[in-house]
Amino acid sequence: MSDTRKKKSGLFVWSIMGLLVLGLGGFGLTGAFQTTGGSKVAIVGDEELTADDFLFGFQQDINRASQQFGQALTMQQARTFGIDQTSLRRQVSLAALTNEAARLNLSVGDDAVRTALVSNPNFQVAGAFSEATYDLFLDQNGLTRAEYEKLLRTDQAQNLIYGAVSGGVAPQATAARTLMDFIGETRDMTWAELDGSTLPSETPVPDEAAISAYYEANPAAFTTPETRKITYAMLTPEILAANIEITEAAIQEEFDVREAALSTPASRIVDRIIFPDMTSASLAYDKIAAGDAGFDDIAIERGLQVDETNLGQVRATQLSSEAAALLFGATETGVYGPVEAILGPAIFRINAVLDANIVRLADVRDDIRAELAAVQSNSLMLTKIGGIDDLIAGGASLEELADETDMRLFTIDYNSESTDDIASNVGFISEALAAGVDEERDLIELDNGGILALRVDEIIPATLRPLSEARAQALAAATAEATRARVQEYANELAAQVSAGADLSATLGALGVNTNQAEKATRTSLPEGLPPTVGMEAFNQTEGVAQTYETESGAIFLLVNNISTFDPESESGQLFLERAQAQIEGDIAADLYALYAGGVVASTELTINQGLIDAILDRVAQ
Known about the structure:
It is extended and about 100 Å long. It is an alpha+beta fold. It has a 4-stranded mixed beta sheet. Strands 17-6-19-18 form a 4-stranded antiparallel beta sheet. It has a 4-stranded antiparallel beta sheet with strand order 13-8-15-14. It folds into 4 domains: 26-166 and 597-621, Triger factor/SurA peptide-binding fold (Orthogonal Bundle); 186-222 and 468-564, no CATH class; 227-246 and 366-461; 264-354, Chitinase A, domain 3 (Roll).
């Protein structure tokens, strides 16, 4: 066995270890981890991050990411996107700041905690703090009052640190004015695109000398790329999955587990008004039923803003049994009640009725089969690698690998223009370009979980095609170049005429060219349809002077009709200045705080229990 093969044999072990180290690289402490058990995910100074703490924070980060993606992410998807490591870094940073606050003897009193609690709009009903709503939130999130108020106290202490770190940011009025002077300038402009159809005559067909000159000046356009004739043996989870038998019983069992998540129960989009007693609720409902008041009128009488009555989309399980029976027994929109709700007597308005979406086994059988096969094939891949690696080390050819293992044999003429799926794989590309002709190569791991070994059978060097073979291409390219040059010259003549006082619309209209108009264009809001590079150049033009810009098909003709500078004295200008200054100061404060937090983490003793983290994530993913 060669030295090269000996060095490669540990590839798959080190790739796994690399993932662990990279996951901790953000802490600057790649040695500060253990995998020996324990109930703490991390110990950060004197602060402890428990398994429950980590899982709760991870779920919050998944929820935030789901909102950004516009769809609910699964645990596996979250891990694929690295949200588990991002969440761990975030939680460790917060723990380090909490530890630092304790070291500095920073704390907040009970009054500050109470103020933050009762002022939280999520816990208010009709503008006042509601203990029932607060307790409902705690119950839904599996928290006690003491646990939540400890979190709130910690958050307030961290706010003290943030205020101390960011409070020294100087006012940025000058920076804001400089920024707004730049992005607040506007241009009124007229532009048009000119191409070969604008010319008064067709471009003459280039003669042989012109064709030959173009061919000689642009050899790259007529050169075939270096091509490598490659044979490769590959095994992927998808290849294995195709031959894995999944029984109907296994599919049914998996469907039974997922059925509740796959189907969407019926829901209603509703508004709700809470009353102190059932009598008040009945009187209000009667007024609505009699047409003497609307639902929103009653809400205003109760001191509620319209958005404070909105519950959004709810399911039956989120309502009291009485309210659920009433609202989900209804099939039409309208006002319903009065009924005893979780927070007291209430009337509801149904804005939309959303029926249940029931998913049947037949709808998802193929998907479930593919997913179960994928799980098995991923596990099976691990059992295949060692044996295949041994065969290669023993001198087996690619053809023998295909005969004796589950690997499949493929060929490709690979070059920079290849469009096969494998040709876009970074691992394949690196290996293909590194290999010499007939050189023995070891297994490489692909980013799709597969493995591959290849052999370069022949390298065909880049070759300049003779003009006789490439004449049609050279003729078309030379003609296009000559046309572009004529268009650009013609556009420059028109620009000179307009700059000298000729009427723009009449000049271009006579050529059958449509013009485009834009008013109040800014550097951050360029006219639609105008290439961004040209749009930015317009801000360097002189008012009333037309200019042209080269394009692949000809030229763009552009005239700046009016230039307006930013007005800091106008009402909108003052508002923009205030916002710009606030944003700049906020960005500087956030950067300072991030630097400070990074320094705190780096200087705090840190232990990460990676084994526990992996166990937690594997368990919840099941």
